[in-house]
Amino acid sequence: MYRVSKETMVYTMSPNNLPVMRVESGSTLVFETCDCFEDQIKTVDTPFNELDWNRINPATGPVFVKGAEPGDALCVKIQSIKVGDQGVMVTGPDMGVIGDELEENSIRIVPIKNNRAIFSEKIELKLNPMVGVIGTAPARESIPCGEPGSHGGNMDCKVITEDASVYLPVNVPGALLAMGDLHAVMGDGEVSVCGVEVPGEVTVTVEVIKGHDLPLPMVTTEEAVYTIASEMSLDEAAQSAVRGMVKILEGYGLSKDEAIGLMSAGGDLQICQVVDPKKTARFRMSRSILKALGAPGNGMDI
Ligand code: CA
Ligand code: ZN
Questions:
Q1: Which bound ligand lies closest to the C-alpha atom of 154?
Q2: Secondary structure element (H or E) that encloses residue 31, with its range
């Protein structure tokens, strides 16, 4: 098993990043990750103005997956996520959905114990460890790891958790996979600007998929298939996610109007996050409905 150290990190997803490791398709790797503040906040007294804001949203990697060529897809199966024993949250006037209604920046330390995030004396939340940032290099641009896009990136999607498979585009040879920004738990929308931000370790298996016809990025779980889209507005993100799922259903032989009808009756348009430089939406279709449609045209289990 490969181990990718959190000492080797990037702040952009870029075709110019040098790979820290080359692995075969089918390999299992452990990515060690810092939290999104690069572990700079240890206590509630950490002064905000002393934080180095150039060291935000690091992603560990990138890893070169042999055989991955532009046009392929990279399937990243999340085998397990281990999180540290303390999470951190911040919010303030320039952050989140209604930051302008806040007067001061604040830091909250959230101890993690017995599979729970201790939010306050009264409130303990069951953990849902998830990967906030996961992506491949874009073809030409360098995109900050804090931004989501068609390459993946900071999608802050809470279904990217243990046992999910994330499908990302391959835009450059080797794909250049990087990830970070784990959350011990996060609600849809990420309204304060963050989840319970934690360092940790993610164990994944990577697989190159040739000749695919998938709308990317996508996530699959045992229960459901999701298309994910990030655009400047939530409306546009919703449209793109819906278009992606229509394409999948057309692969099962449905006409466009049948697909949209089925999605309207039996699917769910959901919000990932509305606080990053682009907004991210997802569309969920249950496996049970897809199964009832028969075999998909693309021959894949999607
Ligand atoms: Ca994030
Ligand atoms: Zn985060």
A1: 1
A2: strand 28-33
